[in-house]
Design brief:
The chain has 48 residues and is mostly helical. It has one helix spanning 26-46. The chain is elongated, with a radius of gyration of 14 Å.
């Protein structure tokens, strides 16, 4: 795979809603996951 076709999308703290000890990071996890989904959808649209 050519390096220009390689993309990394990261989502952090996505388990914060499931793990009580991480509950204070839930907003961060929700925001991070939403941003990752947006990035993946944008990348998916590039191939068209």
């Amino acid at each position: 795979m050519a390096e220009e076709n390689l993309h990394v999308v990261q989502a952090a703290m996505t388990r914060a809603g499931d793990v009580p000890a991480l509950a204070r990071f839930r907003e961060l996890g929700d925001r991070s996951l939403a941003e990752a989904c947006t990035a993946v959808n944008a990348l998916a649209g590039r191939g068209r």
